Amino acid sequence: MMEETQLSFPHLELSKLEAMVEIMFLAAYADGSINEAERAELTAHAAAMSAGRLGAEVVESLISIIERSVREEGRNGRFAALRARLPDVRMREAAIELAVRLVAADGVIHESEHALLVEAARALEVPIAFKGRVASGSAR
């Protein structure tokens, strides 16, 4: 049996933390907008994961960069870049799990968010473990 290891988010390189934030953002933005609850949750997750290294101002700047990158490269281009920036499958799994929590912050997983999570998991070669426990349109 393989021993499970824990990821230490505060010790991750900033580029990896930023990649995880981008995955979370892409999931929240799947419906074409990011509401205040999702934005606050994203900022809180980023601050907690980075032990304060990614504060609100940095996250807001990062969101602007991500939005521009998505417009220029499309989601598939971003997923390819993210997979390269997060070579460890555990990091990609953690990012997907955080994205699930983020999109549930407003109490509903919208169909577009659910579809994006499935698309992201496939593109990032992450087992879709959340599929059975998070139904699109479900309230939390």
Overview of the structural elements:
Pfam families: TerB (PF05099). This is Co-chaperone DjlA N-terminal domain-containing protein. It comes from Sorangium cellulosum (Polyangium cellulosum). This protein has 140 residues and is mainly α. The chain has one domain (12-123): TerB-like (Orthogonal Bundle), CATH 1.10.3680.10. The chain has helices spanning 14-28, 36-49, 56-85, 89-103, 111-123. α1 (14-28) crosses α3. The termini are far apart. Mean pLDDT is 80; it is low at 1-5 and 131-136.
Compact summary:
This protein has 140 residues and is mainly α. It has helices spanning 14-28, 36-49, 56-85, 89-103, 111-123. It is built from 5 helices and no strands.
